[in-house]
Amino acid sequence: xxxxxxxxxxxxxxRMLIPAAVNLGIDLRVLAEADxxxxxxxxxxxxxxxxxxxxxxxxxTVDVITFDHEHVPQSVLRELVxxxxxxxxxxEALVFAQDKIEMRRRxxxxxxxxxxxxxxxxxxxxxxxxxEHGGRAVVKTPRGGYDGKGVRVVTHKHEVDDWFxxxxxxxxxxxxxxxxxxxxxxxxxxxxxxxxxxxxxxxPVVETVQRDGVCAEVIAPAPLxxxxxxxxxxxxxxxxxxxxxxxxxxxxxxxxxxDERLLINELAMRPHNSGHWSIEGSTTSQFxxxxxxxxxxPLGATTPRxxxxxxxNILGGPAEGTLFDxxxxxxxxxxxxxxxxxxxxxxxxxxxxxxxxxxxDLDDVAYEARATxxxxxx
Amino acid sequence: xxxxxxxxxxxxxxRMLIPAAVNLGIDLRVLAEADxxxxxxxxxxxxxxxxxxxxxxxxxTVDVITFDHEHVPQSVLRELVxxxxxxxxxxEALVFAQDKIEMRRRxxxxxxxxxxxxxxxxxxxxxxxxxEHGGRAVVKTPRGGYDGKGVRVVTHKHEVDDWFxxxxxxxxxxxxxxxxxxxxxxxxxxxxxxxxxxxxxxxPVVETVQRDGVCAEVIAPAPLxxxxxxxxxxxxxxxxxxxxxxxxxxxxxxxxxxDERLLINELAMRPHNSGHWSIEGSTTSQFxxxxxxxxxxPLGATTPRxxxxxxxNILGGPAEGTLFDxxxxxxxxxxxxxxxxxxxxxxxxxxxxxxxxxxxDLDDVAYEARATxxxxxx
Lengths: 378, 378
What we know:
- Two copies of one chain form a homodimer.
- By secondary structure, chain A is α+β, with helices and mostly antiparallel strands.
- Chain A has helices at 12-24, 52-59, 74-82, 91-98, 100-109, 123-132, 161-169, 228-244, 278-281, 286-294, 327-333, 362-375; strands at residues 4-8, 27-32, 43-46, 64-67, 117-120, 137-140, 151-154, 176-180, 184-194, 200-202, 206-211, 214-220, 248-257, 262-268, 308-315, 338-341, 351-359.
- In chain A, strands 9, 10, 11, 12, 13, 14, 15, 16 and 17 form a nine-stranded antiparallel beta sheet that branches. In chain A, strands 3-2-1-4 form a four-stranded parallel beta sheet, with helices on both faces.
- Chains A, B: Homodimer.
């Protein structure tokens, strides 16, 4: 009998777990949303992850349940645990990646550095927060946002009336999250893995470059991050992981403020775009590490394999045809670039693949990664 | 439509093509010998590769046919080509990996360095060869041998009478291959890839350590192989690949003789155990390169990623239980070792996995790889 890991969700994160599972002889099974998903090769079941009976039937075929995304309802997760299913990360940790207000509250309790924030239930409360924070604030829907969706920078209390209306109609009800608009010089991400028995491993902190709210590029390690900055980022992520009892890989997105503080922006409780460089760039990739962690196996070394790694997302893909059509040009010009193709149809703005290049000179590495990715985009 | 590569044979070589295919978005399909094979995840059909109709039905589902092993009969391969199927490597190249007498004959025609050899049809001819070569010779069955099977060192003409008898009963008939017993200091392997349009790429020559005729360990690059030795090995493999029109990855096994010549021992026309180190140790692994080559895509860079890589096979596995049972001990003691588990049941002498370690100090790297592999064997 081989050990079986079940992944809920069939996107590219589940897909990128497949190579790690194949290497380690782990039987990876995926509950996919539909046929033909990115992780379709490992899909053992197709069904709705919001339906308890579907998820339970899937869980009964595996040793441990983990996730491609954070959208499985708490009610489903808690009932699975009640039935004796091993769920990693568990619902009591995952809630902090599902609900940004819960996340802010818990991080505050743990004494971790976050932007000023409030839960606001109406335009009047929002107006008060804006007034107290220099006439500008960031409003976020607490649930369901990703890649910049569900985030607005506002200066007036009525700019999110549509969200207040939606909240009023939502059975969950509740509030919107409002945060101070932090003046930052750049965004960083600190990847961390924790296994149930307590071991924690961190990778070097990376710089993430966003365009239109979507991660465009990751530089590992973050330039000018030696010494204290790297230590502070690693310490923050370790305290988050231990404080909320994460099992598996977690990405902590950080703002580096103009006054050189690190503030926690978001948490992702699964392998994350900011860690894709680790497939080639680290002795243990985030995907292998996630499998080790959810199986409570000793974690692998996170040593970087190159002085610099740069990962560039392929967003959208070619206007006509497929990524594959561009392989002859890309491979001929860039024989050292590692191209990852998620097997998804090209669509504007969609993450359909990424390119990683490693080496000793950051300018060269970044040029090569960007130039390769550009061949796949019109 | 994604590009589809069909692999005949479901062993660990087909299995190790899966991660490369997933990364590149290639739809890999395997014609497996049985259910539950090592490459079972990608098995789209189960059947007998010696049966033409089975292989044709499989071929009709893919863009190109390639191989996990060299055992598909020439008659099947030639009929596939006649029907318009793209087969890489093609039968006219593959024959030289299938029949060692054909191989010796062709390499001789190409002027490549091989041991003295003859095709012998009876003990009398064998006796003459032995007498001419210092009273000792190596006899090989021309077809079907692997991992030391079908190879005997003999001093007397009657030591292979069973093979002569079997030949007489074999419809293919023919002769045994006899070779001089080459005095060599070590065995090397030179991996090369060639695409149909002609591009060739070589990895650094490696040293292979055999035990009981089976590859036990590979050191990449071969110690003391800088300069001329590496150039000669690369040149030999390139001339073989071009001379016989290989498409895909080929391993050329070499003897380094006591008088410092390199002689060709065997050819393997597929990814090969001597190239497993390249999964972590090279910018492009032999598995990714094989996919690029059979799809006639530009080949990837073969730059080593570490000063030294050592690959140690896990032979047999634990006497009780599975490789997985040993993960806690192995991972805790060796967090930098990369463990590959082929998902095969442990059995004495069977290749069930391998371990690769890379780094700057060969002694450390070899120690770590051997110590990790030892945890998986009783």
